[in-house]
Amino acid sequence: MKIGILTSGGDTPGMNAVIWAVQKRASQLGFQVIGFRDGWKGLMENDSIILSSDRTKEILSLGGTILGSSRTNPFKREDGLEKIKTALEKNQIDALVAIGGDDTLGVARKLHDEGIPIVGVPKTIDNDLNATDYTFGFNTAVTIATEALDRLATTAKSHHRTIVVEIMGRHAGWITLYSGIAGGAHVILLPELSIPMEKVAELVKTRYDSSEKWALVAVSEGYEFVEESPEDVGETDEFGHVRLEKRGVAQRIADYISKHTNIETRHVVLGHTQRGGPPTAYDRVLSVRFGFHAVDLIKDKEFGYFPALKGTQIIHLPLKDAVDQLKLVDEHHLRIAKIIMGLES
Ligand code: F6P
């Protein structure tokens, strides 16, 4: 058998560990693996490399993806589907592994409907895929954001400042919530929990009025301002997503707090630091489990599925379930954020 593999969407710590695992399990079964560069783009352009064990042997702990990634949507490109079919035929690919988030798995599902033998591997640092308890990359992102909050706390405290920290999370505030709790943020702002700016300023002011003259505000880049105007969106990618960092969420909140409280307030955007560098041990293990499972699905000719974590088990689910529903921060976790902020009696 010949397996094609690609990584698509935002890079995620653990992607290389999945590639490592797919190569390892595939070669054990006597299968060959070919990698396509830069996601669906490389597949459409037939840009590939052979993934021998020599090529993958040192990538388990490496951040990013050795294959490169892009946010290309083949169904938005002229003859995208035909180009994919041609490349698969030319390379005599028997099965494809697509590592990606909801957009990538959405494309994989459409390709499966077109008769292409494909399995998915879910990834996103945002951890917002409802079908799996955790995605790899999330633990790494939370660890990095927590460390950043730890570091910002000491400088904020030394200068009696408030620091607003912008954390990734397009639709869901999981990274902000987890790192906000672990890193001791005093205010936690999530897309799922709209708190008006006056209240945010009041929370910071109340803290300064007590003995503590410093504060950390953790805000998710997808946080919705109650007063935001609808035209405030900016450019979108091929899947229709806005570049969230252009909204300047942290800066706007910091400016608001400074203006309305006279407290010196700075902002920090953690940005791609959260996605770069080596995955944590947890993410490496999850990636390897997903990778092995994906190859076993191929071995059993169970196409149109993806591995998912349910409790402590790896199961597999149909690709349509991957894109069915976003996993937003639930009531239990929202309550924790509210208790931390003193908003829940
Ligand atoms: O979806 C993962 C993610 O890291 C989001 O948290 C973030 O909004 C987005 O990707 C950024 O993507 P890009 O690097 O393509 O701008």
Please give a structural write-up.
The model has no long low-confidence stretch (mean pLDDT 94). Helix 1 (15-28) packs parallel to helix 10, helix 6 crosses helix 7 and helix 8 crosses helix 9. A hairpin with a 2-residue loop joins strand 10 (305-310) and strand 11. The strands form 3 sheets. A 5-stranded mixed beta sheet has the order 3-2-1-4-5, sandwiched between helices. A 4-stranded parallel beta sheet has the order 7-8-6-9, with helices on both faces. A two-stranded antiparallel ribbon has the order 10-11. The longest helix has 22 residues, at 138-159. It folds into 2 domains: 2-136 and 279-323, Rossmann fold, CATH 3.40.50.450; 138-276, Rossmann fold (3-Layer(aba) Sandwich). The radius of gyration is 22 Å and the shape is elongated. It is an alpha/beta fold and 345 residues long. The chain has 12 helices and 11 strands. Bound molecules: 6-O-phosphono-beta-D-fructofuranose (F6P).
How would you summarize what this structure contains?
This protein is α/β, with parallel strands linked by helices and 345 residues long.
